[in-house]
Write a structure and sequence with these properties.
The chain has 415 residues and is α/β, with parallel strands linked by helices. Helix content is 35%, strand content 21%. The chain has a 6-stranded mixed beta sheet with strand order 3-4-6-5-7-8, with helices on both faces. A 5-stranded mixed beta sheet has the order 9-17-16-14-15. Helix 1 packs parallel to helix 3, helix 2 packs antiparallel against helix 3 and helix 9 crosses helix 11. It is globular, with a radius of gyration of 22 Å. The relative contact order is 0.11.
């Protein structure tokens, strides 16, 4: 890692490499801007020997945004082998707060996309990638507060362990402590949240491929894996996100067809919950928790159970957008009040300063939890012409997040 020497106290400090960053590049891709000219420009800098570490990380992200995850991860690994500290764009020359994000070397979806939360706040963000076998800097970058942005995934285990061992001697407040992030994976979350009044979270069981093969041959019943399981069940590869490999399996024949199409060796299986409303439509909500308080993030409505925002057709339906707007505007006095006990219990048990949940309401009116995560994308990229109600709500979340960081920093300074 590049370093600079502070002559006054003879401390070696790591220098941060500037980059375009996650938020700006993702927004360009979201808006349909052709990233190839920028990609080619960065490749030319690499070929000419003038590329910096930040250029390399931007090139890695562009490759991933263009669908070439393997190349993007390979470029990232090359960059992180010699440099681990990066600075995101900040609009202020003298930022009102300095935040250090502690990240893991994983694909673009594996760390909290914190740039979206901070890009309009005047807060400086530096990101330190924590790598197995690479010592943390002798002197940490100047910061007022740190936050763990690595996720609860197999690829982040080592990074979370390294951060955990360093927490006791960390010179500043650390948010989203690694031991709490480590409770979020699907097979652990249901045990953590089980028994909360008004909350329904299906048990998620990790199974090996031979067990699913046994179900496919009818040698095993789903109940032989876990007592609460019966067809239909929901199956997905362990570690998958954004619906990759997610399927509702209705019988043993369907299970045989499913595993024939998958190469993975480990899967998650859980009971299927039919959460359709009386109109036959499914409604899935994303809720953001900042310092224990829930905020509406979005609502997706579709005629399919396996929905996420991009496949729900919200842009094509004024009626759906009106319902989402109502959900956002009345959240505190309606949804949040209706599920107050469940939301409060969940925030207390998870214990993270910042996280999101994807949820619905089951037919008994309980809060049905699909997942909790610290890496879901919370953004303000949607068209304000089509979604005029979204920018104020997103800004409220961003302001709450920034205010929380400032409170923690001030609390440390006052102590």
């Amino acid at each position: 890692m590049d370093t600079e020497l502070n002559e006054r106290d003879n401390i070696v400090r790591a220098m941060a490499a500037d980059r375009i960053g996650f938020a700006k590049l993702t927004r360009m891709a979201f808006d349909g801007i052709d990233l190839r000219p920028l990609r080619d420009e960065l490749i030319s800098k690499v070929s000419g020997g003038t590329a910096g570490a930040g250029d390399g990380m931007d090139l890695s992200l562009i490759a991933q945004l263009q669908g070439d995850k393997r190349t993007g991860i390979a470029i990232q690994a090359e960059v992180l082998a010699f440099h681990q500290l990066f600075r995101s764009p900040c609009p202020l020359e003298k930022p009102k707060l300095r935040v250090l994000a502690l990240a893991a070397a994983i694909d673009m979806g594996g760390n909290t996309p914190i740039e979206f939360l901070l890009e309009e706040t005047g807060i400086e963000l530096k990101t330190l990638y924590v790598l197995p076998g690479v010592d943390l800097p002798l002197s940490l970058p100047d910061h007022d507060v740190a936050i763990v942005v690595a996720s609860d995934s197999d690829e982040c285990r080592d990074a979370l362990a390294i951060i955990h061992h360093a927490v006791a001697r960390w010179p500043r407040p650390i948010l989203n402590l690694p031991q709490r992030v480590g409770n979020l994976d699907r097979d652990k979350l249901h045990r953590l949240l089980n028994g909360i009044e008004g909350l329904d979270i299906p048990a998620t069981i990790c199974v090996a491929r031979p067990q699913l093969s046994g179900v496919a041959r009818s040698d095993l019943l789903p109940a032989d894996i876990a007592a609460e399981l019966k067809f239909p069940v929901v199956v997905r590869p362990r570690g998958s996100h954004a619906g990759v490999g997610l399927a509702k399996v209705d019988d043993s024949r369907a299970m045989a067809a499913y595993i024939e199409d998958r190469l993975e060796q480990e899967f998650f299986i859980s009971r299927f919950v039919d959460y359709a409303n009386e109109d036959g439509l499914f409604r899935k909500y994303r809720v953001v928790f900042v310092d224990g308080r829930p905020y509406a993030c979005h609502m997706a409505i579709a005629d399919r159970w396996d929905i996420w925002y991009l496949n729900a057709g919200m842009s094509e339906s004024a009626a759906k957008r009106l319902e989402e707007e109502t959900f956002m505007r009345t959240f505190d006095i309606s949804f949040a009040r209706r599920h107050r006990t469940a939301l409060t219990g969940m925030a207390d048990r998870i214990g993270l300063d910042y996280f999101t949940i994807d949820c619905a309401e089951n037919k008994r009116g309980e809060l049905l939890i699909f997942e909790a995560d610290n890496t879901a994308v919370v953004h303000n990229m949607d068209s304000p012409d089509l979604f005029p109600y979204k920018p104020p709500q997103m800004r409220a979340i961003f302001e709450a997040f920034a205010a929380m960081l400032c409170r923690r920093a001030r609390r440390e300074q006052a102590a």
